[in-house]
Structure formats: C-alpha cells, structure tokens
Amino acid sequence: MLSRDVSPLAVNAIATSGLTKRFRGGQLAVDGIDLAVPRDSVYGFLGPNGSGKTTTIRMLLGLAFPTSGSAELLGVSVPDGATRVLDRVGSLVEGPAFYPFLTGTDNLARYDAADRTADPGTARARVGTALDRVGLRPAARKKYRHYSLGMKQRLAIAASLLRPRELIILDEPTNGLDPQGTREVRALIRQIAADGTTVFVSSHLLAEVEQICSHVGVMRTGRLVFQGALPELRRTGAARIRVETADVETAVKVLAGLGLTDPRADDGGASAVMAGPDGSGPDRYRAEPEQVCAELVRAGVGVRSFGVVAPSLEDLFVGLTGEGFNVGG
Length: 329
What we know:
alpha/beta, 31% helix, 15 strands, five-stranded antiparallel beta sheet, 11 helices
C-alpha cells in the first residue's frame, strides 16, 4: 500500500499525463503523451529523428516547459519539484561536454564540485567509483581529447553516476559511435540496469531495442503510438504464411480462397497474412498452416518450402511510424 504522501504514479519511475509542447511558431512537437515507465525497467523511447523524443526529455528534466499536461519523476511533479528529485536522476542529453585539455578524472572532479550537496571530503572516492563503473579507470589520467567516441560517452555517463541514482535518462547514447563504442555503451547500460537503476534511453536504432530494452514507447510526429513490454509489441503484428513455388499464380488463388488476407506474389513464391480481418488477432489463424499446405498440394501446387514468418521489429516499427528505422548500430 502506498503512503499517503506518495503519488499513485510513483510506481512508475516516469509518468506523464497529456504532456504537450507547442513552440511559438505553432509547431506541435509533443502531442498529449501519457508515458508510464516502470521502475527497474530499461525503457526504449523510440522514433525517427524529429518525432519529439528530445523535446520530451527536455521537459522531463526541466530544461523546457510544457504547454500543457503534467509529468512526474520518481513520484515527484516536475518542473515544480525538480529541486527535490533531480539529485536522484542522472542524465545525458545532446552529447557530452568536457574540457579537452583535462583528464577524465579532472573533468569528473569539476562536475562533482558543482554539486552543492556533495561532501568535498569524499569527492575522490566518488570520482574513482564512477570511473570504475564505466570501465575508465585505466584511462583516468588520459586527457579527454585523446578519448575515443565510446570513451567520451562512457565518461558522460560516469558524470551522471557520481551520486547514487534511481533513474538514468540517456538521449541517443550511441549516436555516432563506431561498432566497438556502441557495444561498450550498451554493455554499460545493461550493467546500470542490473544494479537496480531504471534506465530511460531514447534511440532510433532497432538494435538497441532487441539487445537492451524490456519496455518500449514508440513516437510518431509527436504522438505516442505504442507503449508496453517488448513482447507485447511483437504480438501486435500478424504473421504471414509463405510458400516457395514455381506456380505462384495458383498459390495466390489458393491463399485467397482460404480467406487469408493480403495474398500476394513475391520473389519465387506467394504469401498472405494468417490472421483474418475479423479482429481475431495475430495468434489466431483463419486457416491452420497444415490446412493451407494441404490445400496447396490438393490444387496441384508444387511446394518447395513452406513456413509461417513472424514480422520483424523493422516491419512493426514501419507500420507504427510510417517511416524506416536504422536497424544497424
């Protein structure tokens, strides 16, 4: 049971209600979104560039004010209660900013010194611990200008971990990194989550979703078009049945005759959506695969191969956003 002085939304690390941002020129950047980020999750905030992800993050951190709606971090209303909650929240927004002529240690020491609530007597221990957590202890005395891109991102995340955090917000943390740097940052995110910190990470890379996220929210032109656990997203797409055959025309007719939707010819075969248009859902078929195969054979179709193909994450995201995603990284 929640305490009387704790918001019911506190069960979520981040919660918004109708959060909206319209710029002075009239552009509606964020359109009434209702985020619900469970505690102890790795929540992927996804969408094409320009879909409103960074604007949303800036509102959550008090860097921009919403036009309407409300937001809570760890059960505390923001921006009104920002001073009471932001010391429990780490963030990396729009890339790291450090002095190139200082070492990693010295840069973190400057960040730490800017925290009025931090005890100066334990600063060295905090900096050392943060460097250890991101795997930069061996490069602690190396000047920042000699860091690789992946090391620079890890140092930025270290700055957000100088104090114990319950929530980490990362805006495109692997943007521009080479494959090695990307792997380093992803491994770090997994470790942070394993330590019990909720991670909210915005991205346009589908690989991030598959490898590190437990929950996702998908943005399209300022609106939240999907939100839920990753398995729930996978269940939103209907599987297609596909047959490889030389007699494509007859195969398409058989699939259509069985009531399957969107029968079509493709490269070397034919396919159709297994779920019908009657709302039966992606897991309930109008015709079972065994029946489909039998009908194809009965119609004289030579079946070279046969199978049910689940939609890829790329297919699902394109369906939700109308745009392609970068599936690499």
